[in-house]
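Example A, followed by Example B.
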Amino acid sequence: MENKRRMFKPDIALSVNTTLIFDTSTGQLNTNPDLEANPKDLSAHSIGIVHSESSKCDLGCVFPEDYVRVPLDFPEGFNVQLTQAELFSDDWRIVKSIIPKIAPLHYIATSYHLSRVKAPDPYIGRSGTSIEQGRMGCQSHQDRHITSLVSRDTWNSGCPPNKLYEDCYAAIRSRRTGISRSTNLQNNTTTIHMYWVEVQRSQKE
């Protein structure tokens, strides 16, 4: 098992970041951006990035491409409102109270980006009929791609095999999430970014 961790490289290494924008006056999440007036106004969106240097397979195994920025689809009736303390306080205990409020959206975003990984179709060259079979760059011979959901800790550590292994086999609910927060007083908005920090210690042992 230990040797497998040291030698591990996933078929696909993928990270997810979720961004939410709040009105600093009301603390209300903007769930209805005016896309007709501003097509780029994705107030709630997620970004999924494939780290090809840490993946066995190439980008052809992920649809539609390596870097995708998509608006979030909110569950019916979903609503989030932050307090003024959550928007502006420097007390980390208060800031952490934001996490359970927005984590459901991060789970949804993560599920979407993981669904972008195609079924394996390893390239086997030409058959007896001289027809090429499989997808060029696909190295997986499993029934599904072995995928690591890359955490911030793994990325900051240079994506070592043992951490990619943990990111691959840990359940979603066993992972710790983190956030960063920034306020734009000119636009009267506060932006929250949520990401996967690491696999919780009890799940690594």
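Example B, a separate protein, is given below in the same form.
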Amino acid sequence: MLDTSMMLMASLVTRHLTTGWEPNPAGNSAWSGSPSSGAFKTSDGIIMIAANTELQFESLCKAWIEGTSDAIKRWASPASARRTQKACATRLPHKFTPRDGTRVGRDSGKHGVPAARVRTCQKRFRRTSSDIGAMAGDAGARNRKPAMFRPLVSRPMANLRGLAAHPHGWGRIPRGLGSMGLTDEQIGALGTRGLCSPPGAQMC
């Protein structure tokens, strides 16, 4: 998600650096102009909703705001549909705010509108830290870990191995792991497996 976000901002950043143009805050409105794509607050965090087509937006409004009989009337003509769109766009954020994000995502998905919870960088780093810490705490029990756990740690481990193999990269790993909350003992356990050690060394 971070890579994609940076890529999508490239044109805006380039324009700002070359002309000094400042983008205006868009709130819940997608920069792409999609009917209702963007981030919305829920009772337990932020959720991204991708209503990229008119049909998806209509489905979202019917699911969260309107009854079936009202919807038939409100979307019957292009003029009434435009009025309904504007009203729905204003009311949808208020519908989502008091509700659980998991429910919002599930119910939106049932009506053909993709939605997903947003995890902050801090949450992602904490998850990665716990994954690495679990492996470091029992370095010899790799094969005993549940199958569902292995994919969670495969990417962080691959990244560490790649950095450790670089002659100038290995020295940064212990500091990074320490800032993520790992103890010296846990970092040392990873070092014995060649995950954060320079060539020829046994420990971090």
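On Example B: The chain has two domains: 2-117, 121-191.
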